Amino acid sequence: MRPFTPTQLNRIYLGCFGAYLLSAFLFVQYKPFWLDEIIQLLHTRDVAFSRMLAGSRNPGASFLPDFFQWLLVKVHYSRAMARGPAFLFGAASICLFSKLVRMAGLSAEFAVAAAFALLPIVLRYTTEARPYSQGLFFTIAALVLLVAIEQAPTIPRSAYLFLATTAAMYSHPFTIFPIIAAAFVFSTPFRNANWRLLLLPVLGACVAFAPWWATAVTTWNGAVAGSVSSASSTVFDWKTPFRVLHEITEGGYVTGVCLLLLMLISVFSSDAQKPRRFAASGFGGLILILLIEDRLHYYFAARHLVFSLPLLVVAAGFALEPAPKFSRAIGLTLWAILVTGSVTSIIIGALRPRENWDAAAAKLALLARQGDCIVTAGNGHLRYYAFFEPELNKVSCQWQAVTRIELAVDPYDAGEKLAAISDLTAKGWRQSGEEETGKFQVIEFRRQGDRGNTPTRS
Q1: Is a pLDDT exceeding 70 seen at residue 316?
Q2: Is 341 found in the same domain as 198?
Q3: Burial letters 208-227, b for 16+ CB under 10 A, else e
Q4: Which residues have a Cβ under 8 Å from the Cβ of 318 and sit 6 or more positions away?
Q5: Residue 113: half-sphere exposure toward Cβ, Cα within 13 Å
Q6: DSSP letters of 188-200?
Q7: Overall average pLDDT of the 348-352 stretch
Q8: Are residues 300 and 400 in the same domain?
């Protein structure tokens, strides 16, 4: 069998990328919104610019993702438009990552890029209305420029690095940590005489981000203090390495351990400095992210680690290169397990029942039109249902007039459910039925002694 020509290979690569984008778009179009997407959309859909700007000051949030989403949903609201920025930046991230792989000198460009694209966490944030794929894109752009400056330093490239890093920070503040780690590793003075062209743009981007940080830090600190208890805010303990391995790709231990082993093979199988520098930069960014989470008394948030993944995957990619100390077959086997584990995790996740706020909201709106009073177990959670059914904002419960109360319990209300039931029982209501809709519970209550004339749900 004759080997493929470069033209044929390019067509195969484009076909695979097209199939990937089509699959991702199906997720974009049909996957229900989950809570964090709704929270972001609450201050980008049908709101003035000033309200969108105020909402962007949520903990860890920056201006650019909300702004792009606000522009698109202002034109037309739909799932595709709400998730449009994430999808476009996710697709662009994969293309730019291929360039980073090529600039690193890896021969297995397609295999490395495909493994990165198929990591569950990368696909997830390509298909969710969240800021992470946008932050990932500008992080990779900054890394590409760092490598380019190291190879051929010029002042224009340094200026572009400043712009890319600034855009990354205004997409998500945690993007700075892998960038600054890479800048220090790549600009070690005894290795690179042009270290100023690498470090100064990154430090300048931090200065450019300072005005936003100054206006948002009080809101961030207040929100974190109000939502994260001291008991749950310890990031560093003996479980941390296991959490990182399990969560960094969102594919479980199989993908996390394979990625680690591939990096170790890359680092120890060659005397070349490239794999060590990419690995050191990736681990440096990862550790900085964990340190900041711990310093802010935040919880372990695996989603922040996605910004270090490009460096770590490139470092792991060197295991596919011919090496004198290790058989290439070991690297290829681990790479196959990594990709298989990622695809399996994606399929399992796609088949798993999801929270469906849209379906639950439609059910509550139907009950409200029948005269039922709607209450939620979580304080203030009615607005999340009202995002899909605005009429729920107008429901006024006259406790003495209604005969039925519907208690909505979402997947995040488990802790408040018993308290809400106890409160209604103490006020003279009895539980008379229960129904599940899209992983939500809708519990019916009637007055004590009132059996009603209609059958209750069970």
Answers
A1: yes
A2: yes
A3: bbeebeeebeeebeeebeee
A4: 106, 266, 269, 270, 272, 274, 275, 278
A5: 26
A6: -TTT-TTHHHHHH
A7: 92
A8: no
In a domain, 120, yes or no: yes
Report the relative pairing of strands 373-376 and 404-409 from DSSP bridges. Answer: parallel
* Residue that is written with structure tokens 């209450």 in the block: 375
The dihedral of CA 169, 171, 177, 178: what is its sign? Answer: negative
Encoded tokens for 438: 């899209």
Q: Which two tokens stand for residue 90?
A: 């996710």
Number of other residues whose CB lies within 10 A of the CB of residue 88: 16
What is residue 81's three-state secondary structure? helix
Which residues, at least 6 apart from 351, have a Cβ–Cβ distance to it below 8 Å? none
Phi, psi at 321, each rounded to 5°: -80, 150
Q: Are both 373 and 346 inside the same structural domain?
A: no
Distance CA 119, CA 306 (A): 10
| pTM confidence score | 0.92
The answer to whether residues 382 and 433 belong to one domain is: yes
Q: Which two tokens stand for residue 303?
A: 């989603």
Within this chain, do residues 343 and 368 fall inside the same structural domain, yes or no?
A: no
Question: In the chain, helix, strand, coil percent, each to 5?
Answer: 65, 5, 30
pLDDT at res. 190: 52
Structure tokens at 18: 């097209």
Whether 242 and 379 map to the same domain: the answer is no
Lowest mean pLDDT across 30-44, 86-100, 178-192: 178-192
Q: Quick check: 437 pLDDT over 70?
A: yes
Q: How confident is the model at residue 12 (pLDDT cuts 50, 70, 90)?
A: confident
Full residue range of the structural domain in which residue 380 is found: 357-447
Number of domains in the chain: 2
Measured distance CA(382)–CA(50) in Å, rounded: 24
In this structure, what DSSP letter does residue 86 have? H
Can you spell out the DSSP letters for 246-294?
HHSSSSHHHHHHHHHHHHHHHHHS-S-SHHHHHHHHHHHHHHHHHHHHH
| Residue found under tokens 């995040």 | 412
Burial classification of residue 4, based on how many CB atoms lie within 10 Å of its CB (0-12 exposed, 13-18 middle, 19 or more buried): exposed
Domain boundary at 351, 366, 389, which? 351
Q: Are 69 and 140 contained in the same domain? A: yes
Q: What is the mean pLDDT of residues 193-216?
A: 91
Same-domain pairing of 273 and 364: no
Q: Which of 351, 368, 395 is the last residue of a domain?
A: 351
Residues 252-310: tens digit of each pLDDT = 999 999 999 999 999 988 767 889 999 999 999 999 999 988 887 777 888 999 999 99
